[in-house]
Design goal:
This protein is mainly alpha-helical and 447 residues long. The chain has one domain. It contains 17 helices and no strands. The longest helix is centred in the N-terminal third of the chain and has 36 residues. The protein is globular, with a radius of gyration of 21 Å. The two termini are 19 Å apart.
Length: 447
Amino acid sequence: MTQGKPMGLILGFSVPLLAGFLFQQFYTIIDTMIVGRFLGKYALAGVGSTGSINFLIVGFCMGLCGGFAIPIAQRFGAQDEESLRRFFANAIYVSAVLAVVITVAVSLLCGWILRVMNTPEDVYDYAYRYILVIFLGIPVTILYNLLSSIIRALGDSRHPVYFLMASSVVNIGLDLIFILVFRMGVVGAALATVLSQLVAGICCIVYILRSMEILHIRRREMTPDRHHVRILMNMGVPMGLQYSITALGAVVLQTSVNGLGSDAMAAITAAQRVSMFFCCPFDALGQTMSTWGGQHVGAKKLDRVGEGLRDCVILGSVYSIAAFLVLFFFGDRLAGLFLGAGESAVLRNSRLFLIINSAFYIPLALVNIVRFLIQGIGFPTFAILAGVCEMIARMAVGMLLVPAAGFVGAAFANPLAWIAADLFLIPAYRYEIRKLKRLFGEQSGGE
């Protein structure tokens, strides 16, 4: 990615990523549609109520794996293949240990967490059974996210998409079998998600063994090394904490939303599923900027960092406007995919949630683009602080705005969190670029 026009490279890298995120959301949407239409709104509300703690734990794992890929991207940009493989080997060791520790801890605590969040009794059993299976599948989540992040760090954003396509087909098929044939309820939906991720993870392993010789670890490179582990943890833990700190605010917010009743919970769940699908381009642009930043810092080409940022923001802004228009006119119909007939009040609230959130998609685009770029160029601590800003905003909404304004207050939680993060991230990026310029002794247009 260090050669050629930024706009073309960003599009070329992000479009396959976008396809992957869309397929990932596609089978999440199918999950939710089957749960909402065949198991009812209480099951839908139960699954939706786990979103914040799912983001808290699984998001930490995803951020951790994304952080582990940054030193590999930097070594790839610097053309230091031996060090790259040493980082890969140590990333495997650290991920295996953390997978066991995290799985045991959160599986034991998930019931207590749901109680603390005031999960209503009419949806508690659905929520507990669903999230317990998801947590037991954390090793699979780490397997896929670690390997796919590393493949992307080396500039290949296409093959992880192919693997997600395969896992999407598996997920949909297992959903239908587990829920409609075997009558496994929400457990079937969760199990289908875990097994489909396992398929994607196995595909990554096979691809690396067959086609990515640069990742074939030599015997002398297999030894665990404190230096490499320290660098991996310094990158991975802050990125994981960024997700978790952000999610803490979402947990407080979800606790307040739970007090609004199962109808409000179902409306937000349906709206968030639609919104997650429409937010996939922001995720793709963010992941692209992480690799962009890592490779260009490794190659010491700071002048191109800012050029990529500019072009990426243009793409994100144009898409944000288009997404708002679609959701403004068709939001209620899209939310209706997840609910049975006769839920008119729930659908009205879902449409309201979508309109309010999509009106602030440009700030969301900035959050993803700038935060991932900051991580890629090697300053993950600032990403954590941005997460703190989001957490504080969501907590404030949950404790103050939701009790005062009800559902409307909950709908403004995400926009206020995005704006709070942007107010920190933009000056943080400018500060970091100046710091790198002094470090490299270069004059560039990175600002």
